[in-house]
């Protein structure tokens, strides 16, 4: 079973490495090769994960642990590589391989003849590898590795249509939020190691005192809230919709947006030791759920509306986790991920679908939620509407409280650094291309 | 002390020095002379490293050199790395950057930096320190006044320290007052010599408040030689080679201040880069920020911290060489120095250069799968006892650096293409092979870091020796 788990986790990484090295060597993989390899790999991986789950159930065991030794060792310090397949990680591994396989097939048609076809598939495999690492990691250190890969691929896929400034700017915004929140996970791992001499949970979560558990729990919550777009970091989610629809579906409908919830589920023993951290999870989930459903109702485009609907559900999942539930959030995540992926993939045809449903209902499709709206006073409705239109004012608040002061400090330091220097214009260099005109012997490329 | 089989260090220094003389003669053969000189130097350094490794990490004296040069695990890796980086830069540099003057001076910087690494004698080290800085003080790599002032200050400080140490050693009855082996642990020169050495390190390494010259040098000077010069990390090397062994007691008291200053520099440069628009300055600030914590690691008195610092030196050197090289190649193709004011969309023309930029950038900011992740992990872990604040500040600085780097990448390679760009080609073979070697090293050593760590293990043990009795090592398993 260990070998199968290892193969399942490493397979996407191997495919990513293969295709990216071949591309760097100058080979542009044909579409058919990319889609067929993807189909074969994830079909086999799906069968393998199903077999693992069945074997684990049949054997009555709780965990499949794969120890790959130490990644590196210095003196007393070891970085153990342990992969875990247990009742929490296997459903997430299954979700990943099934959805990546489906998205791979869907994208074969959706991105046919797109100039970035190969890039999309290469990044999809890297994403799958990162997600598998998160879900099968036996320590928070290894979670960090997968976490960063998922974040990076997410950002690179948001800027997939990089010839437009919009997606690129959105990718940068998302990257800033990801990096800021990743500090929580990285610091939590170091704090755990400092306090408990281990950040591994392969043999159970390290024991922490109440105060320590609060610190670690809140740090993990910061990271989980960033990755799952919870308040106050929700502002990045609509920006992430700039990417191609298949990647939006798998990232923000299914896997990436639930990675934060998985992290909290994994760290639930720590949260349960700290009432403060658990309460914070519930509060953040609650605010996000309310805010997500309100904003979703004011969105003009289908994908953003779906993104906020997704966010509201993840908020509910956070509440469930904060209350100490385990299986209900897992089932909630699995069901939500599948439904939301389908909705995202159908989003480009939503108008067509709506007309079909409208016709099927005999042209009397009622607007939902009227009973709720009628219960809210008119003045409050307008206030809520304004807030929802501005997406909870979250971006504005973050901009004013964090971004602008940081930029001001940076500019002030720049002025300090440049004191005593003459202001110089950008240095002009003779372009190589121009040089080839003026000096034919030089060739097109300088050198 | 056992001997090397051949005067390999002298050869590694002498070959590029001779090549520099040959390069000065003609623009036509400058690159060839440079490549031959640095390749010869790299071969000698590799053999030196092999003998040091075979010798179990002991310090080896060079035959017939009167103890002027020694090889040990600390300097043998630096010798190899630096000569290979110079070789890479000389191969991929655009033609306009390989004139006789520039190549000759680059080879002189190589020879003098290798001499500083290999020195077994404080006088040789100080002379090499000054020689390596001369092209940036007197020419041909001069820029604005601040690099000249910063480097001059570091040279004056090291000369002052040398005088005080020599005088004290002579009074103390030392038979070879400049020999590093004989000076070890004696604290000759006391606080005055120690303070001057720290000033030399602060000025050379660009630690706050002496940091601004590095930005200026990167912006106004020739970028590839400047990159090579910064990546010599002679400031950190002086700390490891002279200050820690010679002044273990002074170091105990003063190092926390130096480390806090280094941490502050890391954060300062990271914040500073957030709103900077000039590409060269952004990269210089990132180098400053990422390399400042090396000092904190070196004085952490834990083997993990010291190993992390030494490996981080390698990562910063290799990754920033890749970044500066891509930037320079893009500048030459594009025709202007870059700013992050507009999107240029150049990845359409140069997809492979864009990928190399990303890989080197990710290594610099410690992404998993690159050697930068391992070095930062060790660095933070090892310094947690002596500097708990590093656990928060270094990830914060690294996060800001990653954002600045991605912003620069976006502006250069993504977004709407600027109209009227023609004739820009992707990496040509000699550029591609050098950059591929850099990327391969970063990724391969990141996936399998044991080899890179084993190269630095003995050096870390040796460095930890003088401070170990005063230290507390974090035991445990992650």
Number of helices of chain B: 19
Structural class of chain B: mainly alpha
Following the backbone from N to C, one meets helices and strands of chain A in this order, namely HHEEHHHHHHHHHHHHHHHHH
Order of neighbouring strands in the sheet with most strands of chain B: 1-2
How many individual helices of chain A? 19
Shape type of chain A: globular
Would you identify the regions of chain B where 5 or more consecutive residues have pLDDT less than 50? 469-478
What value does the average pLDDT of chain B take?
A: 86
Secondary-structure element order of chain B, N to C: HHEEHHHHHHHHHHHHHHHHH
Helix content of chain A: over 70%
- What proportion of the residues of chain B is helical, as a percent range? over 70%
| Number of E-state strands of chain B | 2
Find the biggest chain interface. A-B, 72 and 88 residues
Question: What is the gyration radius of chain A calculated from CA atoms?
Answer: 24 Å
Biggest beta-sheet profile of chain A: 2 strands, antiparallel
Number of domains of chain A: 1
- Principal-axes geometry of chain B comes out as globular
Strand content of chain A: under 5%
Proportion of β residues of chain B?
A: under 5%
**Uncertain runs of chain A with pLDDT below 50, 5 residues or more?**
425-429, 431-447
Rg over alpha carbons of chain B: 21 Å
Describe the protein in words:
The complex is a heterodimer of chains A (447) and B (478). With 447 residues, chain A is mainly α. Chain A has one domain (2-349). Chain A contains 19 helices and two strands. In chain A, strands 1-2 form a two-stranded antiparallel ribbon. The longest helix of chain A is centred in the middle third of the chain and has 32 residues, at 165-196. The radius of gyration of chain A is 24 Å and the shape is globular. The model of chain A is unreliable at 425-429 and 431-447 (pLDDT under 50). Chain B folds into two domains: 1-119, no CATH class; 121-470, no CATH class. Helix content of chain B is 72%, strand content 1%. Chain B has helices spanning 8-25, 30-54, 73-92, 100-118, 122-137, 145-171, 180-183, 190-205, 212-220, 223-230, 234-246, 248-274, 279-298, 303-334, 351-364, 371-383, 390-413, 429-447, 450-467; strands at residues 60-61, 70-71. In chain B, helix 14 (303-334) packs antiparallel against helix 15 (351-364). The two termini of chain B are 39 Å apart. Classes of the chains: A mainly alpha (447), B mainly alpha (478). At the A-B interface, strand 1, strand 2, helix 5, helix 6 and helix 18 of A face helix 9, helix 12, helix 14, helix 15 and helix 16 of B.
